[in-house]
Input
Amino acid sequence: MPMKPKQLLSFLKMSTNSDIANIFIQIADSLNILGENVFKIRAYQKASKNISELPKDVKNYSGKDELQKIPGIGNDLADKIIEFIDTGEIKYFEDLKEKIPLSLLELLRIQGVGPKFLSVLFNEFDVKDITGFEKALDDESLLEVKGIGKKKIDEIKKGIDIFKTSIDRTGINKAYEIASSIVKEVENIKGTKNTQIAGSLRRWRETVGDIDIITSAEDTKPVVKAFTNFEIAKEVLASGDTKGSIIVEDGIQVDLRVVKPGEYGAAIQYFSGSKLHNVRVRTIASKLGYKINEYGLYEGDKKIEGKSEEKIYGKLGLDFVPPELREDRGEIEAAQESKLPKLIQQKDIKGDLHTHSTWSDGKSTIEEMALAAKKLSYEYIAITDHSISSRIANGLNEKRLFEKKKELEKIDKKIDGIKIFMGSEVDIKSDGTLDYSNDVLKELDFVVASVHSGFKMETHEITERIINAVKNPYVHAIGHPTGRLIGEREPYNVDIDKLIEAAKKYGKALEINSSPKRLDLKDLHARKAIQKGVKIIISTDSHRTEHLSFMKFGVGTARRGWTQKSDVINTYSLKKLIKWLDGFK
DNA sequence: GCCGTTTTCGGCCCGACTGTTTTCAGTCG
Output
């Protein structure tokens, strides 16, 4: 998916790590157009990804030796990172920009346009940006270039339309909805079996570039045909014997792979990625004298496994790796040593501890929320409406807070089979104090403290501010601890390590907010927290009953963070939870 | 440009689809 220039810019401003990651990817793209060694290009791409995922800022690394411990960072790239930290630029990149303008790189994101074609356009048609690119496509003499015909040009013109209208990456909620409905449709195609979401969506990444779906059938071609004829398809990008590719709403691409039933395990493994994980898997296979592709695991020409994903991992000496862990973040080593975590599952969740009602800015009543939670077989729900400072969200003053408490207790008595906790999502004000006095807070069953204003504070200020809330004896958890809105707002500058340390010291939980816009804590932060022994609460921040279903996104994020059932407070039974809450009194 | 339980040099995952070809190159995932 193309990335809008505006978003590229905001990405650029984020941090040293994303600055460097961005430069490395642009170096890779430039080298690609220059026809450089593909492995050198791959090295820059890999380094870019690894740096963007680092848990701490490269500025805080002790020196070159420590930098070189980052996978994919060797002597050369460590020097370049240091150069960037010292001078704010990398000369190698500055020189490359003289050769290949940045406005040209963006065009690589157009469907059907690769480095070779772009190189021809740049060298022979003086194309430097999208305007020149579109002009060149109408130039008759382009057809004289070897390998370029009318169809190719038409395909690229379509690609430009998609490039111009599509957003960068699709949020998980929308992707999940589209994917689920397409899975249902594919299941209705005659002869299909085992239709399943693959790709980054199966790994529950917070955003996805495209949607991958795998199915199996004895006769594959008619399935692809039926798929590309779906009404939802606005554009058909490819339609072959085993693979179809369509564009649906908002420029979202959906790929379907159809394999024989005996190849299903290999295919779902292959198409679930991540790319880096699969490279590791393949390398292991080849060291054992095997070959692995999307059809199976082979010893010479003999297929020894293909049907079962589990068995493929098994034959490679690996425990089955849950898709959420397949990011080359240590899961291969853990699978070799049988040390993979037993990940939390959605069925482990016993309640939701961060929800809103019509008392503040929710759209459903306390009773509706409780009944919806009961329907999910939850044992409890906390209704945590906003506190007074959140005026836009109709936050409750003390008087209304106690009125609500009265009503809530009435409803709690009325409804059997679910415990309703009286809670609050209390604002952490700019000075670090909370919106209610301790005398008020101690009357509540459950308190989640969150920042809702003053996001632009310096690191030490906002960190201290949130830690102040952690220290308050009546606070149970910190809500959406970094405050990011995916694709909309950067996280606040909170020092996550210090926050985790404080949460550990004071025995407070950190939230994974399951709202698909937030997913906060994110996977890597959650992993850090549980490594330090900090408890997690996975909540939906529901503002209407339908939002309770966001829990799956929070659980997915938790799983990506290697979280186990025992790490999560709201897997506790009601009895155990009450005991935990009593510990605060 | 990185990396090492076959290697400090010589590897680095592998196949589908498409268009322009007549055996393949480019692009994609």
Observations:
- Chain A has four domains: 5-165, 170-259, 264-336, 346-582.
